Amino acid sequence: MMLEQDTGLSLAIAQIVQRLKGSSLHSQLERQARGSLHKPEIKLESLKEDIKDFLKTSGWEKRLQNAVYSELNVFPSPCHPAAPPEHMKEPLVYMRKAQGSWEKRILKSLNSMCTELSIPLARKRPIGEQKELFNKWNEMGTDEPDLSLFRPVYAPKDFLEVLMNLRNPNYENGDQPSFRNHLGLIQVPLKVKDIPELKDYFSELGLNTGQLGIDDSTQVPPELFENEHVRVGQTVLTEQDSAAAQQYVRQGCPTALRAELWALILNISNQPEDILYYEQLKSNVIQHDLLVDSLIYKDVKLTASNDDYYFVFEDYLYQVLLCFSRDTSVLEHFSYNSATPPKSYIRGVIPFHGFSMYVAPLCFLYHEPSKLYQIFREMYVRFFFRLHSISSHPSGIVSLCLLFETLLQTHLPQLFYHLREIGAQPLRISFKWMVRAFSGYLATDQLLLLWDRILGYNSLEILAVLAAAVFAFRAVNLMEVTSLAAAEAVLADLSTLKVMPLLQIFLFATVT
Amino acid sequence: MATRPAPCTVRSPVALQVGDVKTDLARPGVAVIDVALPPAQPLDLQEIVFKNSYTAFLTVRVQRRHPCDVGRASARKWVTCLWNHCLMPSPHTEAGSQDYFSLFRHQLLCDVDQVTAVRLILRQPSPVWLHFTLEELRLYPRGQQSLQTDFPSWLSHLAPQQQPENLHGGVPDPEKVSTEVQQLWVLTEMIRANQTAARIGRFDVSFQLALFIAHRGWPPVLGLLCGPACTEGAGCILGTGSICCHPELLPAGHAVRNAIKLLGKLLRVPGSGVLEVGNSHLP
């Protein structure tokens, strides 16, 4: 067993070294090491040790640690060497197939939209149009192009239909109802956590630990928790330690420190080459017009522009999303994503209805477009992509749906049965919340507290727990409804909810 | 690091069931896979590699031949070398159901030298699965490692940066060219080593070069940025929107062309590393 652990460790080390080699951090470290040779404290006899000490004291070792920690968080642990690359994307064959056919459907829909509207997938802009766009870059929201003929490629409920029909061919999916059939909409036997395991996993959300979102309310004197928590946050920022920051935000981020803490956890430093990269993407946008751009425009106009909290950020959203659709570095993440990028001019992600809501809350934190862009891209390749691709990952949307349904059935069986009987399967209502990570449904400050925990635990399972907690909170009203429409109405407005008390009560204070 | 598995015959799994196999509705939870090795070649087993297909627990028994047993077939004994090894921690759910596994000799309960036959006993207590088995079963003899275990230690350390070569005489504009060529050379070395998966940042040089393929007998060189005269639209992996083109498209005259010719000779790089990088439009 020891040998297996050692070889697993050296394989992981080799993979991380390979990914960091050739990165800008590598060249910076070498430049620093070479520059340190002029310093008097570096002696030739103990060159290696002295340079290591220098890198430690000047903070470069910490940056390397943060980079390694980031790689560990993002990339899955190395597979068995006999496993083919598609196994790393997704180990279950039938899920890969389902993702493949879903992608084909989306592309077909996009292509047919192109042919219908006689619009090319991509075209080069004439010089006049390029100049115009360049001048208008900061106010693209004032444009009112005719988008009436465009429609979103798909909406979350289309995706839900696909997930409902997901079946393992080796599983006993009999017609007779039996213990093998799940009572909810998801029929795939994935392993999900139950409440004792969730209590253990989310132990920092417990009743005895201070939380922002609960213990910073006006009735609680700040000396009890808030002041100390802010002080610890400032220390974490001074130390520039990613791992410590990730642990810290599990109890919530103070508003003033949130932007920097998230950037530290995501390991975004906004170097000159990052700004340059963003400028290159911007010039790509100016030179070429993609069909996907019109879809993005339409999505922003339909969702974020209509939202009371986010309409002011409309211009930022265009600046980020138009560049994102042209960013080929996003393709790297597809090696651990069950999806495959389409092999055509559409090189990246095809947006669906509501996609722009992933970016909108970040606009409250970051005002510089290139930093906002990088934060969004990192959040996407770590978390958001799992919400709209079919995979067996514990944070994938399929597992989240199953977790939600299992929690509801186990802890609110009467409610679940009642809703099922009236034709209002709970997942039909909560699916759209989870796919958007609750963006646009919760008040912004509550949403940011929720996303703090997503970053802190590096997992999206909290979305399913919150969805179940919302149902538990409104259980009394829901027991009295008699149709799906009425159930939707009871759960239509979540903007007054406080996220952290709901989660605490559901996980730690419910008698089971 | 040779990876040749030992030749063996893997029979299909046989379900162990009480009662009539065809009419009994209950699904068997136990199956046995027999692996026969060539009779005259007993194997010193190093590793067993397989892909799981919904098996929950695995027991492995081997038949060994002792040197004193030569000629007496009845004296060969079966011993259990792995007992109830868990492949699926939660047999009703998917975790571990289609994963790849390796069993090394040091993990086994007994010595596995001089093995003449292997028997794998598969158990799947959950009734929800229709079939369960193991796939892609391979046995590796001792002395031949499978892919993973033989890592050279240098992979765990950062490799030292190589110094670029000195330029020789006969170069037009030597000062200008040499400073910029050194930077480019380092870039090509990095690409040629091709051990990095990180993206290469954009390179700022004052004049721009073009990509060649084996053209008039030059070695293929490298492709980087291109001049503003370039009109092809497909983007390259650098994301700059610019790509590589033939020398004929360059606006400059002889000076640039000569510099490029010389570069080709100096660098002597096959260029295959860079050519692979996203340049699908090249003939």
TrEMBL record, chain A:
The residues that cross the membrane are none
Annotated ranges, domain Rab-GAP TBC: 252-458
Identify the SUPFAM superfamilies for this entry.
Ypt/Rab-GAP domain of gyp1p
InterPro entries for this protein: Rab-GAP-TBC_dom, Rab-GAP_TBC_sf, TBC1D19
- Tell me the superkingdom of the source: Eukaryota
Protein known as: TBC1 domain family member 19
Provide the species name. Answer: Chrysemys picta bellii (Western painted turtle)
What gene is it encoded by? TBC1D19
From TrEMBL, chain B:
Q: What is this protein called?
A: Nicolin 1, tubulin polyglutamylase complex subunit
The gene behind this protein is: NICN1
UniProt GO cellular component terms: nucleoplasm
List, alphabetically, the InterPro entries matched.
Nicolin-1 (IPR040235)
